[in-house]
Amino acid sequence: MGRIVAIIPARMASTRFPGKPLVPILGLPMIEHVRRRVALSPSISEVMVATCDQEITDVVAASGGKVVLTADTHDRCTDRVAEAARPTEASIIINVQGDEPCVLPGMLEVLVKPLLDDPTMVCTNLVARITSDEEFVNTNVVKVVVNLKGDALYFTREPIPSRQKVTTVDYARYRQLGIVAFKADFLQTFTQLRPTPLEKAEFVDMLRAVEHGYQVRVVETGGHMVGVDVPEDIKRVENILASDPLVEEYTKW
What we know:
The chain has 253 residues and is an alpha/beta fold.
């Protein structure tokens, strides 16, 4: 199967929520929820946090986690992940956003399966169906338009496909969950690609791959995920995790 490494990019200087990786959720810093939940996946050989901040490094290291200190010049999280991935001997790298504390280990198993089954596949992107109009119009939610083969056509923070046609045409609305798997060599290729106009306009990393003509396979999960974009999201996440049996398991570590 090869070695699968999960890398969690995190930084303190979030525009919408500064310092959010270390915000406590049920008494544990958010970055530790993400790291420990990812580590529960049986397919993952290693989990590491990639950060340019000493505060995050100290917290993760104190909990026994592996941390890679990266440059502070990265504009995109994928570039930070690629830097941390270079010394690893991995066949697949999973980029798990550090603000997804509801990630489930089973999601990662589903995400990497196409890469393991098809040697021509280079990248997979985890998505979930949008179930409310509130989520659909939320500009913090990245929407994904998918072709009939299951590959990404476009990513945007705007409400597409058209809201006017949603009630009359039978198609699903998807949101990107911030968890992307790469063949290790393609991850390095990706970061060397010239940044693209739509990537810059939408501020969505994966548009770079789409605009350069690479196949990004969309993988749907039925799991419920609530990311942390703004401070108000913390309470929603705490309500979800309060009844999650995984929390009791990994808070004992």
